[in-house]
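Supplementary Text 2. Reproducibility record for the structural model of the 265-residue chain.

All settings were left at their defaults, and a single model was retained for analysis rather than an ensemble. We include the record here because the model underlies the residue-level annotations in Supplementary Table 4.
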Amino acid sequence: MLLADKRALIHGAGGAIGGAVARAFAREGASVFLAGRTLARLEAVAAHIRAAGGVAECAEVDTLDPQAVDRHADAVARKAGGIDIALNAVGVAHVQGTPLADLTLEDYEYPIRVYTRTNFITAQAVARHMVRKGSGVILTLSTPGARLPGPGFMGNCVASSAIEGMSRHLAGELGAQGIRVVCMRPHAIPQAEAAGSHSRDVFGMVARRAGVGIDQMLEGAAAGTLLKRLPTLDEVANTAVFLASDHAGALTGTVANLSCGFLVD
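Retained model, structure tokens:
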């Protein structure tokens, strides 16, 4: 198993990506600690992991509250003996597809404020514990919006670019302490949309403005990639496993492009 005896803390574990990564981490031998806003969704993920013989614990945590995040990370490290892997998969519905002339300042600022705040708070909380033992892996999530010129994605573009920039800076700041930081940048995931995630609300707004259904919009997105398809949850989760494992020990300060060739680096 690639993550045997590792301790993984996943914020936003009740969402489609967070839950898929949690299950994959557990399958590869990690003990997973699931944190999020909705306990029922976390417990559903944990039940699946336990049924497969894995170890999972849940906690309702507001990742915009630094004291709450610190208390939970401290409790996890105290109980498990440390934190080896952390992923922030927190997602919020936000406005996309609105032209600049019609975009309110509040709608523009909201994703930037939320995503930069939660990623800073969670990274700081886990890094304190990783520094003490001289090793660890912090994974973050962005979107292809980080590289898109628009139109209609101003808040998402700036927020995703900020997460990628923060990840690079964290890698530089924490590398000497043995901590790796890698950002994953998946394109739209049809399974996540079907699961009723926050991104379905986002894509719903864009699709309505374009006068098409979500499925039709996703088909168009797939046609725009080199592989003529979109990534799957399993592909994202398995990539997270690899990045968190010792097999990726030389990888840090970079973005894993999971866009199926929608973006080419």
